[in-house]
Design brief:
Layout: H1 2-15, H2 24-37, H3 47-60, H4 64-76
Helix pairs in contact: 1-2, 2-3, 2-4, 3-4
């Protein structure tokens, strides 16, 4: 684990060019990776710049794990973070559905 932590500055340099990629999925993945990598003390100088990307991710992403990573990084770095959006109520019966749209359960074969 310590060896991986020591690689964080090098990995950050590899990820940083993708922070402004034209493909939204690539850009979002790069931001999340950079946020994690920036926990290394040698990368602390990049955190304010990454905070801008984290806020953009909070504003535009529909991916909850990525939004949580952005929120967690901003909070850890002492930035003000907007309140999380309320959890939407689950439609009745949704949990009874399996991977098939016809309502078969998880254990029932699709054929």
């Amino acid at each position: 684990m310590a060896a991986f932590r020591d690689l964080r500055p090098m990995l950050y340099r590899a990820v940083a060019p993708f922070l402004r990629d034209s493909d939204e999925d690539v850009r979002e993945a790069a931001v999340v990776a950079a946020l994690v990598l920036a926990e290394h003390p040698a990368l602390a100088e990049h955190r304010d710049h990454l905070a801008v990307h984290a806020r953009a991710l909070l504003d535009t992403s529909g991916d909850d794990p990525n939004r949580r990573a952005a929120r967690k990084a901003l909070e850890a770095w002492g930035h003000d973070v907007p309140d999380p959006e309320p959890v939407q109520e689950v439609q009745e019966g949704l949990w009874d559905r399996g991977p098939h749209s016809d309502g078969r359960g998880d254990l029932e074969a699709p054929f």
